[in-house]
Amino acid sequence: METYGDSALAATITHLKRDLIHAIWELLLNDKFMHAYEHGIVLKCADGIFRRLFPRFFTYSADSLKSPSSPILLIIDADSSLNVCESPSRNNPEPC
């Protein structure tokens, strides 16, 4: 405000917020994440079985003046059709 003598217009603030959100998504959706999204990540679960898990983003947004921000939740989804079977030694994951 000191530099220009006036505060930014609402349209300018909206534009900058949109650009910021796009830049954040670009950082989040990098090649490493996209590979995990498409092919999953093999992890040893608490029960000792290796499973292929898939990270997913779920968002909620609504046009409401009361809630200007949209919560984002990262969910790890286990797709049972792509699970990794337990190997005899339980140390080496084997695809089902």
Describe the structure.
The chain has helices at 10-28, 31-39, and strands spanning 41-44, 50-59, 72-78, 84-85, 94-95. It has a three-stranded antiparallel beta sheet. A two-stranded antiparallel sheet has the order 4-5. A hairpin with an 8-residue loop joins strand 4 and strand 5 (94-95). It contains two helices and five strands. It has 96 residues and is an alpha+beta fold. The protein folds into two domains: 1-30; 40-95, no CATH class. The protein is elongated.
Question: Tags for this entry?
Answer:
two-stranded antiparallel ribbon, 96 residues, 2 helices, elongated, three-stranded antiparallel sheet, alpha+beta, 2 domains, 29% helix
Question: Roughly how many Å is the radius of gyration?
Answer: 21 Å
Helix content: 25-40%
User: Helix count?
Assistant: 2
**Strand sequence of the main sheet, in spatial order?**
1-2-3
Shape: elongated
Strand residue percentage: 25-35%
Separation of the first and last Cα atoms: 61 Å
| SSE succession | HHEEEEE
- Characterize the biggest β-sheet: 3 strands, antiparallel
Overall mean pLDDT score?
74
Structural class, by secondary structure, is alpha+beta
Domain count = 2
Number of E-type strands: 5
Question: Low-confidence runs (pLDDT<50, min 5 residues)?
Answer: 82-90
